[in-house]
Write a structure and sequence with these properties.
The protein is mainly α. Helix content is about 50%, strand content about 5%.
């Protein structure tokens, strides 16, 4: 097979991979049935690795690693045509060259399901491709596959995932070396970055405008009470969108809000790395919690043992997925953009076109640090394992001083 021909997905979702049988995936069964045995063997190694990652890390990490391992094996099967346990540093660097400029047939503009259920079997989706052209949310120009280049973040994710894959294979005594670890330092596509880092966040005025937009939507139509509560929660409690979503091993419920002996409110969160943490709940946030609970016909504040989902579907039962929650937040972003554009012009509204849900977490933490709250306290609420992470991502004081002193230079 040449690099210009269409490739195919190798791995289903985390739930489906637990019980995967090739007979249920005819396209994979047919492919491996016609190939040398090492290809199916490597696919089985990867399945075991991904199950291990999902079980011991998180479903989010599984999804991220699945994408990278899938691309690597497809390159190994269809382009390199050589077993991965024979690779050396130069082969990993060849793969990096491939990732820097993959064939156009391996690139898509949007996400597609990997498999389509047909006649009781999972058939490969012909629309799926392993690479995707990403554009800024505010960019209305048509994307061009020929301009695809992986970001530094994507390259780093590629090496991180493959490094973990080879370490697993070594632990299982399936490989006797890790070429990824030594190849990364010689990869010519990594750039040493000493730029000023700007946290993706809203200013205090922009946040106030967004919150007022959400309040106005909820005042006009009660169906937007969920949107208001979610937006306020992500910012005030520094949450990731996934931390309010229903997952296979965790459902956020109202009983996770709790009060200690000193009448302080907390929220128990199941975060990245399968870690539980308790987040401080500010007094001002309780007004939004009360408003949302009363809208749902609940008592003003939670009590222990309540098992209602924190954010529930309007139709059906149970909590919501990250994707469903993201849509609720996006409705507020879109409304804020239209409102700001109408009152202050296109340029003023542009920031609301760039927003993602994670900006709300950044906004909440950044404003708290600027308010003077102890970095250690903010770090623990964020769930960072080290204050150094919080300091690197959120503290911009040195850059502000540098910018101010730079303005004072004469020409």
């Amino acid at each position: 097979m040449t690099s210009q021909e269409k490739c195919f997905p190798l791995f289903p979702s985390y739930k489906e991979i637990q019980y995967i049988r090739l007979d249920d995936y005819p396209s994979l069964a047919n492919y491996f049935g016609e190939q040398e045995g090492w290809k199916q063997r490597h696919w089985e190694w990867a399945c075991d690795f991904l199950k291990f990652i999902g079980r011991n890390k998180s479903e989010h990490t599984f999804t991220r690693f699945r994408s990278e391992v899938e691309k690597f094996l497809l390159w190994s099967f269809l382009i390199k045509c050589a077993p991965i346990d024979e690779y050396r540093k130069k082969n990993i660097l060849e793969y990096a060259d491939f990732c820097w400029q993959p064939p156009l047939s391996w690139i898509s503009f949007t996400n597609h399901d990997k498999f389509i259920l047909a006649n009781g079997a999972h058939e490969s989706n012909p629309e799926w491709a392993p690479f995707r052209v990403k554009t800024a949310k505010a960019d209305e120009t048509k994307p061009d596959k020929k301009k695809y280049r992986p970001s530094q973040e994507t390259l780093n994710s590629t090496f991180t995932s493959l490094n973990a894959f080879y370490r697993y294979l070594m632990d299982e005594e399936l490989c006797y070396g890790n070429p990824v670890q030594i190849a990364k330092k010689d990869c010519r596509y990594f750039v040493k970055d000493t730029q000023v880092k700007e946290t993706k966040r809203l200013s205090e005025d922009q946040w106030d405008f967004l919150l007022k937009t959400a309040e106005s939507m909820a005042d006009s139509d009660s169906k937007y009470e969920r949107n208001l509560f979610l937006v306020a929660s992500l910012k005030a409690l520094f949450l990731r969108i996934s931390e309010f979503s229903e997952r296979s091993d965790w459902v956020p419920v109202m009983g996770h809000f709790w009060q200690d002996h000193d009448k302080n409110w907390w929220l128990k969160i199941y975060g990245k790395g399968r870690k539980l943490r308790d987040v401080t709940v500010p007094t001002g946030y309780l007004d939004y919690l009360r408003r949302y609970r009363l809208y749902r016909g609940l008592s003003a504040l939670p009590s222990s043992g309540e098992n209602q989902p924190v954010i529930e579907k309007l139709r059906g039962r149970g909590g919501m997925t990250s994707r469903q929650l993201s849509r609720l937040v996006q409705e507020v972003f879109d409304a804020a953009y239209e409102s700001m554009k109408t009152t202050n012009g296109q340029e003023a509204g542009q920031k609301f076109r760039e927003l993602t849900t994670h900006w709300l977490r950044h906004t909440g933490a950044s404003l708290e640090i600027e308010r003077g709250r102890a970095l250690k306290d903010v770090s623990e609420d964020l769930g960072h394992s080290s204050m150094a992470t919080t300091d690197t991502v959120y503290v911009q004081a040195d850059s502000k001083k540098r910018a101010q002193s730079g303005k004072e230079r004469s020409v």
